[in-house]
Amino acid sequence: MRLRAIILGAAAGGGLPQWNCGCDNCNLARAGKILPQTQSSIAISGDGKTWAIINASPDIREQMRATQQIHPTDLRKSPVTSVLLTNGDIDHVAGLLTLREQQAFTLFATGEIHDVISANAIFDALNPRFVARETVLLDHPFMLVPGVTATLFSVPGKVPLYLEGAHVDTELEGEQTVGVHLQSDVTSAYYIPGCAAMRPDLKARLHGANAVFFDGTLWQDDEMVQARLSQKTGARMGHMSMSGPNGSMAAFEDIDVGKKIYVHMNNTNPVFRDTGPERKITKQNGWIIAQDGMEIEL
User: Fold this and answer.
1) SS3 for 12?
2) Each residue of 177-211: pLDDT tens digit?
C-alpha cells in the first residue's frame, strides 16, 4: 500500500495573502498574479478512502470544501477519521473548532500539546462522545489510518507564541514541536512543518526517505526585518531558513531523499513567485514548492 498526500494548505500562519499585509506577495495574490495559499495542513491516506489530517488550520473548512477526496460520504459521515497535531501553534489548532459538528474522529498529539488544548475551555466544544483524545509518546509507532503508521519525534523548535515567557528557547527539543514519520508497507515519508535547526540525528533519521515535507517558512533569516514587517528573524521564530550556509537547502545536500517538498511558507517568502530567481534556485536544488491542492503519491 502506498502513501497518498494532499497539501491542504501550503502557507504559514496567516496564509497568503494575510488579511492586513501589503507586502509584495500579498498584493500580487490579491491581484491574481500569484496563487493564494491557505494555512499549513496536509491530508494523508493509505487506501484513498480513509484520511487523516495533520494540523487543523483555521482554513480547514475551505480546505475540505476544495478537496473532493475528503468530502462527506453520507449524512454526518466523513472520510476523515483522525487529526494529528505537530505543535500547539494557532495556525495548527484553531481549525479544531470547525470540527466540532458531531463527527467522530481521534485527536492524536503528545501529552504536552494535549495539555495546551485542555487548558483552554473553548476546545471543550469538541464533544468527548465523538472526539477521542489520544496521547502519543515520542518514538512509539501508532496506526494513524489503515495502512499508515505514524511515529512522532522531537525536532528543535519553541513553544507557541501565546505561551512565550521572558526567555524563549528557540531550539527546545521535547514534545512541543514534533516531526512525523509516516510509513506504509512500501513507503517512508516525513512531515516536518516547523524546525529550528538540522541536528546530526535528524539527518540520519531522514536519510533514505521516499519523501520529506519540510519547513520552508522563510527564504532568508532576516526576510521579515528587511520587508519592514517585523523585528523577528526566522531563528527567533524557531524556523530554519531555506537559503544560506546554515539553511535547509544546504543541510539536505548530503541527505538521500527521493522527493523534497517545502511546506509552511510565510507570506513574505519569494519562492511563491513562479518566475523569481529564488524559485529557480530551489528547483535546481531538487525541491518542490508545495501549493494548495497538490497531490503526491509515494
Assistant:
1) coil
2) 999 999 999 999 999 999 999 999 999 999 999 99
Give the angle subtended at the CA of 100 by the CAs of 98 and 104, to the nearest 5°: 125
Identify the CA nearest to 85 among candidates 52, 122, 123. Answer: 52
CA angle 71, 75, 76 (to 5 degrees): 75
pLDDT score, position 153: 98
Q: Which of 222, 235, 236 is CA-nearest to residue 268?
A: 222
Q: Helix H segments across the chain? A: 24-30, 60-65, 90-93, 111-118, 200-206, 223-226, 248-251, 277-284
Confidence check: pLDDT of 250 > 80: yes
Q: Which residues, 6 or more positions from 135, have their beta carbon under 8 angstroms from its beta carbon?
A: 109, 110, 111, 114
Query: Measured between alpha carbons, how far is residue 162 from residues 89, 117, 188 in Å?
Result: 8, 12, 34
The per-residue pLDDT for range 219-234, each reduced to its tens digit, is: 988 887 787 887 787 6
Amino acid (one-letter) located at 116? V
134 vs 226: CA distance, rounded Å? 42
Max Cα distance, the chain (Å)? 53
> Three-state SS for 194?
coil
Domains of the chain: 4-297 (3.60.15.10)
Q: What is the DSSP letter of 95?
A: G
Residues 6 or more apart whose CB falls under 8 angstroms from that of 93 comprise 55, 56, 85, 116, 117, 123
The strand pair at 51-54 and 80-84 is best described as parallel
| The residue count for the chain | 298
Q: Is the pTM of this model over 0.85?
A: yes
